[in-house]
Amino acid sequence: MKEIDDFAKKTDAGVFKNISRSNVVTGLKARVAKPELIDQGTSSLCGPAALMFSVLRKDAKQYVKYVTSLYDTGQAALGDTFGIFVKPGEDCKKFTPSNDISAVDWIALASLRDSENDFLDYQSPKDQTAGITSPSILSVWLKQCGFADRKNETNVFFTKDKANLVEASDLHKKQHTVCLLCKGDTVKNIKGGVTTVPSHWVVMTRPVSFVGDNIALEVFTWGGKRSLNMPLSTFLSTYFGFVSGKR
């Protein structure tokens, strides 16, 4: 991609002083070729990861321009004229990514979350509270990135039922981007309990198949597409609905 090649040719240091330009170039090329490589790692940046995956699949140039502008200038626009203006703080830009999260994903995801926070800095993957993304915020982000016909069918206190999951699956079949609110345990086929609360976003990449009392679907999360096969009751015990939009 020409935009990545032009970025790679620059010789000056970016504003993320502890991240090399070559590292960003490598990460960008890999993700443009395979968007599901976006990975929040051990951080709580699953909301920004869900958004960035959704944007990259629809408009790779927009994603590349966003990341390269952040690296070069410390600020960038994500979306259309009325999109998201992202300008991370100094602590975010000084962070040195390690095994917790890759350099390019730190720039894209942490910058968005840090810039959008009014009171909490996001300066490390350990900042779990500062990294949380609510359903309403994710829905607004989708709107600002050009996704129309949005729906927010979530509940952060009570799990959702089969009808809600069927609606999410039907929207996916109609080419809508569908982000599911659940728990990390959902991906691991672990049943929720009475005190279960939502803590994780995944993006549906294949509609749900219902086979007797079981379901099968595929989702994007943690740097890959994962096939989920489990009893419907197990999935619903950690499922809190969806946010969707079409572009």
**How many E strands?**
8
**Main β sheet profile:** 6 strands, antiparallel
What overall form do the CA principal axes indicate?
elongated
Strand content: 15-25%
Strand order of the largest sheet: 3-8-4-5-6-7
Helix-strand sequence: HHHHEEHHHEHEHEEEHE
Structural class: alpha+beta
**Radius of gyration, rounded?**
18 Å
Low-confidence stretches: 118-122, 127-131
Annotation field: number of helices: 10
Q: Tell me, rounded to a whole number, the average pLDDT.
A: 91
How would you summarize the topology of this molecule?
Layout: H1 2-9, H2 21-33, H3 46-58, H4 60-73, E1 76-78, E2 84-86, H5 90-94, H6 103-116, H7 135-144, E3 148-154, H8 162-173, E4 177-182, H9 184-187, E5 200-211, E6 214-221, E7 224-231, H10 232-236, E8 241-246
Antiparallel strand pairs: 1-2, 3-8, 4-5, 4-8, 5-6, 6-7
Helix pairs in contact: 1-2, 2-4, 3-4, 4-6
Written account of the structure:
Helix 1 packs antiparallel against helix 2, helix 3 (46-58) packs across helix 4 (60-73) and helix 4 crosses helix 6. The chain has 247 residues and is of the alpha+beta class. The strands form two sheets. Strands 3-8-4-5-6-7 form a six-stranded antiparallel sheet. It has two domains: 2-132, no CATH class; 147-246, no CATH class. A hairpin with a 2-residue loop joins strand 6 (214-221) and strand 7. It has helices at residues 2-9, 21-33, 46-58, 60-73, 90-94, 103-116, 135-144, 162-173, 184-187, 232-236; strands spanning 76-78, 84-86, 148-154, 177-182, 200-211, 214-221, 224-231, 241-246.
